[in-house]
Design goal:
The protein contains two helices and two strands. It is an alpha+beta fold and about 80 residues long. The protein has one domain.
């Protein structure tokens, strides 16, 4: 069996947010169809030990956004339960 690998991301241990998003950007550049729609959630630390959750994504309706979030949630749950490899 042979495999044709033309791109292998470098998932640097302990990467900064900038480095991690840059790695993701390289995958999106190489394989744009993998990123037809996406949402990224992040937590911003504020003063007085408070934080706020923010998100950014492609142009979607609220219904599409929530559907994608739910699909992602289900994917995580299935992987945690070991039902998907």
């Amino acid at each position: 069996m042979t495999a044709d690998i033309d791109f292998l991301p470098v998932w640097k241990k302990g990467a900064t947010s900038h480095e991690r998003l840059s790695e993701l950007s390289e995958i999106a550049r190489k394989y744009p169809k993998r990123f037809a729609r996406f949402v990224i959630f992040y937590e911003e630390d504020l003063e007085n030990d408070q934080s706020i959750t923010r998100y950014i994504g492609t142009e979607m309706s609220t219904r599409e956004l929530l559907g994608l979030v739910e699909q992602g949630r289900m994917e995580i749950l299935l992987r945690v339960k070991g039902m998907v490899e």
